[in-house]
TrEMBL record, chains A, B, C, D:
Name of protein: Voltage-gated potassium channel
InterPro entries reported for this sequence: K_chnl_dom, VG_K_chnl, Volt_channel_dom_sf
Localization (cell): Membrane
Membrane-spanning ranges: 46-67, 79-105, 117-137, 146-167, 179-204
Domain Potassium channel: 129-204
Lineage of source species: Bacteria, Bacillati, Actinomycetota, Actinomycetes, Mycobacteriales
Keywords, comma-separated and alphabetical: Ion channel, Ion transport, Membrane, Transmembrane, Transmembrane helix, Transport
Gene Ontology biological process: monoatomic ion transmembrane transport
Length: 254, 254, 254, 254
């Protein structure tokens, strides 16, 4: 069982970069496919690339599921990985892992968790809006009564949806388009939730810092107390020894 | 009075499963009623099942109200139970209690409160959208100027409403439909609130863990201090005794 | 200056009930005025009642401003009171203070702050939606191209606005209507914010309670430590005295 | 490197007021330009003023970037400053810094962080809505199929967008207008997030204050414990000295 966990960890680490590259290639091929609508050989090649990318993700998922020691638990905990395989819309989200690798960004933001959350949220929002726009355009434009027919309209619709503004000047009419819309709404609610939560964490911390009189006791303060107790004990022990030594002279003197 | 509280606790425990089953049967019968629109005997049977389910919930409510020691207080604290009896839309929410019973899910998520909150929120969202779609479809489709006339449209409308996107491409026109919509909006705001709150709790905790220098003092650290104090006291007591013993020899010696 | 603060406190306490009554009378008169649209004497009487209620609020505001020791500061801190005088929409909000007075409710909820927040939020939401519906109906129905022409439509519009769903099937077209809408949106955002914040507070507390190993040190635990320290000091003092007493015999004995 | 940081700090301090004035002049000129739509010389003068304001911001940005010790880091951390230069919509936000300077406001609110957050949020919201209304009006009205053609409509659209209500009765149709809308939505989500976060911080604090039994240990309580430990140590030291002194007599007496 340890070997399997070991194997999984190695597999994940080794495939980190290759899978991110596959996600990038998928995104590029999908973009060209939707935006340029090529025909002939170009179309066939792009379809093959998209299919190959899907195959790579599927194989990665199946191998990891097969190797996982507790399959049921792994399955429940990796539902998002299944979604990445099943839904093309979510596949490029794997690219988000690349964000970690930009040294410059990391350096500027520092290791602070809130800084990292902000960068991830911004990158996720941009990627989500872009991919959702491609997907909705592909799903909708073939329908006669569709209103989302250009990439510009698709991006505009994605932005109004992800922010939950929802003017309704553009709205999907196909079932595929509505499933994409539902996923986008869930993404939007999560992004808004993260923005609010990060702000809340920041305000709570600032208020706590300001409220000097009621500052919460820190582990450091407890540590100082501990050090003083230790010193006190040493002092008492010394006093015992002093006494023991100090006693002897009189008894010896008598 | 203790007997009554006792009786209530037993009643609740015994009826946990049967009431969840009734809620499930209600949901199934209601779904067939709305989606298949049967006629003749099938229709009568389904109506009877729905009515019987309602009766069970009503009797359960009345018995518990009758037995409750402080009726006024019980009434105010169980307004949601009254709503479950009064509003068919809320009745299947009783099914949510079943979520607890899926051992596999529980095992995968662990006992962590945030994990449980996520599962409940997801299950509530799915159930809410499904039941609201059934209810709005039943309420609207008989009206001539209604725009929500198929189950697909109803689901789409429910999703746009629960996420507060509200495109307005579909909107209820009947009073019943609008009451359902208002309940769905309240549900949506609660769900979004829970998502944000869970994220906030997670970020606050992560920030606190990271901020090692200002880590909040834990009960465990206080316990360690306490243990040291106890040891110190033992040391002092021992020193007193040593002194008491050590003293006697000289006085005795003199 | 103390006399003035004293006078203000008395003024506020004495006028608590009368002003709530005036707000109630205002709401009743305003409701009849908008919903029944009476003519002749009834109309004149209602207008007089509404005007009198406004006068009472205005006099109350002016007296309190005149008496306030630091007028500038009082003015900034009581902008909401000015808004209550200036905007009929906000005037019935004074009724919210009555919520405190329902003993039964208080008893059922207990003194817990989150319980009180929930009750206030629910009461505010209902009152806000009702008053906004009246105000928007009065503002819009006289215009030819208005879509909000019945009270039912007005309530429906208020609910979709306060939840920020905003279908757009009904929208105000007059300037007055849009000002009411803007106030309602601000109210809606505040209400949603309170719902989310209350949930966040609840989840943060539950997570903290669950995380027993890292439970935050409480003042109570510190108190216990303090008590132990005091006992320790007493023990040391006693030991000193014992020694002082124990010493004398030998010196006396010699 | 220290000289550069020094220079930057001085530059920022010296230019605080002048840049706020330039932002104010920009806002005034831009308002006249959009609302009065002057022609002839007035138009040329206003365009020159707007261009000059932009130049000032651009020069300020370039100087600070040129002087910054770590350019890459500075660039990432001051993306907002770049946005202020690049986007006229954001330029008047510099005026927000003036809020600090209103002594009366500061005095009334006190130094409390939540009070300051509320004032900033309100001022930002008003400024954002006003500038977005000007910008959208300028972007849209030249288009034939635009629905936002008067300043009143523009303000109404801005309010429905910033609150994420989004009726859809007015929606931008030009690319520029949609970019403005996207920025406004981001601003709206941030404002709503701040409102919710401030409320959450307030409720968390109130709940903590109320929950007296489980009150979190404060630094002050730890300080008291520390003081007691110090006194205890003094007592023990004294006891050691007393013993040392008290010992000598008997030995001396013998």
């Amino acid at each position: 069982m340890l070997d399997r966990t070991d194997f999984l960890a190695k597999w994940d680490k080794r495939l980190e970069w290759p899978l991110a590259c596959v996600a990038g290639i998928f995104l590029a091929a999908y973009s060209v496919q939707v935006l340029a609508q090529p025909s002939g050989i170009a179309r066939a090649v792009l379809s093959a690339v998209v299919a190959a990318a899907w195959l790579v993700f599927a194989v990665d998922y199946i191998v990891r599921l097969a190797v996982a020691p507790e399959k049921g638990r792994w399955f429940v905990r990796h539902l998002l990985d299944l979604a990445v395989v099943a839904l093309p819309l979510l596949r490029p989200l794997r690219l988000l892992r690349l964000v970690i690798l930009f040294g410059a960004l990391q350096k500027a933001v520092g290791g602070a968790i809130r800084g990292r959350v902000v960068i991830y949220t911004a990158a996720s929002a941009v990627l989500l809006i872009y991919v959702a726009s491609l997907a909705i355009l592909e799903a909708e434009r073939s329908r006669g009564d569709a209103v989302i027919t250009t990439f510009g309209d698709a991006v505009w619709w994605s932005i109004t949806t992800v922010t939950t503004v929802g003017y309704g000047d553009y709205a999907p009419v196909t079932t595929t388009g509505r499933i994409i819309a539902a996923l986008l709404m869930i993404g939007g609610i999560s992004l808004i939730g993260i923005v609010t939560a990060t702000l809340a964490s920041w305000i709570v911390q600032r208020v706590a810092q300001e409220d000097a009189a009621n500052q919460v006791a820190t582990g450091q303060q407890i540590q100082q107390l501990h050090d003083e107790l230790v010193e006190l004990r040493i002092a008492i022990n010394r006093s015992q020894m002093v006494r023991a030594e100090g006693f002897e002279p009189p008894t010896a003197g008598v």
